[in-house]
Design a protein that fits this description.
Elements lengths: L1 H19 L4 H7 L21 H13 L4 H12 L12 H32 L11 H4 L3 H15 L1
Length: about 160
């Protein structure tokens, strides 16, 4: 029983230490977009002595030293530089619309295609309208190519 309790205690301490390590410098660098115009994250910016990434890295270290959580640090940067600094926009307000709209458009387009195909298939299976009368013979084989084709078929059947 003691071994089981000791194992549970070790497991709890290990999970607590992993949760504390959740805040990593690289993770924060990946969460922020470099402002030099390269379009990369602060971590991935490949400009030597980048005028944006280097100060941002120093600022990340300062914020980590204050003991703030990951969300607190990201909120600090969003408040200071605007939401454009976040590499992934927040899922609230207008950004939520930007996340949902493409999926909604694809679903509506798919529904439109399915409904249209079903209507076309249903229309192809309908018999001709009896009020219109029988189709004239000229409509059956009206073109010269169709008449030649019919003669060729008749000649093939007789052989």
């Amino acid at each position: 029983m003691r071994v089981l309790l000791a194992g549970a205690l070790v497991l709890a301490l290990a999970s607590a230490s992993l949760a504390a390590e959740d805040l990593s410098f690289q993770d924060l660098e990946e969460s922020l977009t470099c402002q030099c115009g390269c379009g990369l994250t602060v971590h991935a910016c490949n400009h030597l002595q980048c005028p944006s990434a280097v100060p941002l890295r120093d600022e990340i270290r300062e914020q980590m030293a204050t003991g703030k959580s990951r969300e607190g640090i990201l909120q600090y940067f969003a408040a200071k530089y605007g939401e454009k600094i976040l590499s992934a926009p927040t899922a609230s307000g207008f950004n939520l619309t930007a996340w949902i709209t493409p999926f909604a458009v694809v679903l509506l387009g798919g529904a439109f295609v399915i409904v249209t195909l079903r209507r076309w298939a249903r229309g192809a299976r309908r018999p001709a309208d009896p009020r219109l009368g029988p189709r004239p013979a000229s409509a059956v084989a009206s073109s010269a190519h169709e008449q030649i084709f019919e003669r060729e078929l008749k000649g093939f059947d007789e052989s």
